[in-house]
Amino acid sequence: MRQWISSSAAEAQLKVLTSIGALRHVDNASVVRCYACDETHETAVEMVSLGRFRAYCPDAGYQDVSAHDLEVYAVDIPALAASIRRGLEMPPNRPIDELLTGRLWRLGEQRFDRILSSIYFARQLGESGALDAVGRALRAFPEQGPGVIFSSSPVDRAHSFPLAPYVVAPLDRYAELSNQHLRLDQDRIAAALRGDDGQVCGVGVQFAPDYRQVRIGQEAYRFTPK
Ligand SMILES: [Zn+2]
User: Structure pTM?
Assistant: First the structure.
């Protein structure tokens, strides 16, 4: 949700993902977080008039809420897969294999230096049990590594290790936006596959499958159904 993204360090990632069409504004939240008082609480949004909203805080009274802050975003996997394929100059029109529902997709293969690698996209790897589930799905697939798993999640080095020979590549580290296109740093990806680029960091925006929760860095934000 826009309100939380704006108040975090993730605004730049949101811009990258929205401008390539991988994140879309799909809904508007009915609850916002209150920033008017010292409590951490959520408050229901009321529409005052067309395009004008407010939320009530028991301590601070009515607060104006901008329509912009209410925007809820969802990940568009085919659009994101197309951007990654374009960024790596892979054939664009092959089917995407969803290896783990809502979590892991195989996009094809690409060669980095002399290493032929499978290309995957995964989301929400920071969730508990997610890496284990992804590991099981990869082992069940007939081909065995090496592979690059692009992810919108931040994954620390210790966590990425159990997936070897697969490398987890957070998009904020391996990709940048150039003229509305995702540009992927193939040299750095090759280095990661060789094990020369173990340093992984960054802030990711991860959405729950029903988009009722977003995790930004270490903080999770939950919103209630309308
Ligand atoms: Zn309040």
Answer: 0.68
